[in-house]
Amino acid sequence: KLQAVQDAFDASTKADAEAAAALNDARSKENSAVAAENEAVAAENSAKATEADAIQKENAAKAREADAVAADEAAKAKEAAAIEAEAPFKAAQAEVAAALAEVQAQEKAYNEKTESLKKQSEEGGVVTRNKAKVSLDAHLAEDPLPLRKAKITLEAANKRADKARAPFQAASEKAEAARKVAQAAREEAEAKAREAESARQAASAAREQAEQARAAAVA
Q1: For the chain, is the Cβ count within 10 Å smaller at the N or the C terminus?
Q2: If one looks up domain 2-109+158-218 in CATH, what number appears?
């Protein structure tokens, strides 16, 4: 009987130990599961915060992009207006330059004729030389003053045209420079907007993965 009691006691002690071990194991697993769940929740919250920040930055970058695009378009419009305003003065200058070139061509023709008649008056037979000399005298007797005066007048007109066009030319150059700056700003803003969009997409993907990990930890 004593042995039976001892065996029963040993069996009970063993059962108690096994039950305690099972309880400790269950508690350990529960604690691990809770810790894993808490970690997953924290990671999910962090991913959501990162995504929210990325969305905010993306929206800000796109807003700056829109402003840069508008500024670029406005600069292009100003440049076009400045070029259009300058156009009549460019045309006037071109007309003056063409007229001046014509006067210079006439003067060149006059000088060439003079040289030709001089040469004829010095070469060939007597009759030919005398005839050429008469023609030369008549040619030289013609007053070239109108030709010179026209040239001076045209040169002065050309200078006046340049002076009149200068402010418009400066405006065109200024508008062109502003347009280049605006275009560069637009390109930079567009690039940053694309970068922000990519960052937001990556943050959204990370948030989705964190949600899946949290769901797996809870299950």
Answers
A1: N
A2: 1.10.287
